[in-house]
Design a protein that fits this description.
The protein is an alpha/beta fold and 131 residues long. It has helices at 2-41, 61-74, 94-104, 113-130; strands at residues 48-54, 80-87, 108-112. It has a 3-stranded parallel beta sheet with strand order 1-2-3.
Length: 131
């Protein structure tokens, strides 16, 4: 009888240990995602984010982004929080232009495609959890 009780106690201990490990892992993943989003994307609170992907658009991207920023800053699009621009491995100077514009305007965030995809995936996960 004592052996069965010891086995049940051991099984309870193992199961509780597994649950605690999984809970801590989940907590660390949540903290990691929050730190990543706050540190690397500089996204503000809830709102509308414009995401633009560009490839080899050095002749057009500056005018395009300045037009969008002008409409946001001086128009009626107050709900737009940030413009996130990702370069799709351009072979021209698109990335240099984007980096220059991001230094000139706080509202432009330049990320690579992988970072952009991670941000979108995190937003999708957060919105699904709220629903």
């Amino acid at each position: 009888m004592s052996i069965e009780r010891d086995e049940i106690d051991m099984l309870d201990f193992i199961i509780n240990g597994i649950f605690w490990v999984l809970a801590l892992y989940g907590l660390f993943e949540i903290i990691k995602n929050i730190i990543y989003i706050c540190t690397y994307t500089n996204l503000k609170s809830d709102g509308i984010y414009v995401i633009i992907a560009a490839k080899n658009q050095e002749n057009k991207i500056e005018g395009f982004l300045r037009t969008i920023l002008f409409r946001i800053m001086y128009g009626k699009e107050e709900c737009v929080k940030d413009v996130i621009v990702t370069d799709l491995n351009s072979s021209d100077d698109t990335m240099k232009i984007l980096e220059k514009l991001s230094k000139d305007y706080d509202g432009i965030k330049v990320v690579n495609w992988k970072e952009c995809k991670e941000v979108i995936d995190n937003i999708k996960e957060a919105s699904w959890k709220r629903a």
